[in-house]
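Workshop exercise sheet. Pairs work together: one partner reads the sequence aloud, the other fills in the structure field after running the prediction. Swap roles for the next sheet.
Pair: D.N. / O.F.
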Amino acid sequence: MTRRTQRVGSLVREALGRLLLSDLSDPRIDPARTSVVRVEVPEDLMTAKVFVSVLGDETLQRKTLRALKHATGHIQELLGRRLSLKHTPRLTFEFDKNFQSTLEIYRIIEDAMQEIRDKEPSEPQDESGESDEPIEPIEPAEPADSQ
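Structure field:
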């Protein structure tokens, strides 16, 4: 990717994010659960592959992707009004599998941490078996007079 294609991809991603939040009224697309993760644009800038993430079960994800694909023409028209590009890229929508796997890993880590918390005793102890209560400082002894 060149700097130019990255810049255009970033512009398209930001504009699509705003469109999802404010301009689309399709009830199948929940803007609170749908986000544009990244946009890949080839050198000719004529197409853009839009990777989206949808929080929810697989049925909701498929329904949202179907709605986005159905509204592609309308989304491209709105995008063309917002961006000052010579040609509005032809959009294709896909799920971002990387984001889904990251969420799954996060969920596994959270489950493991909860299991660890459940197994811990109520009072934290260090490795020697002693509690973490503060230790009273020992007063230094008075030096003996040497004469």
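Discussion prompt: The chain has a mean pLDDT of 84. What would you look at next?
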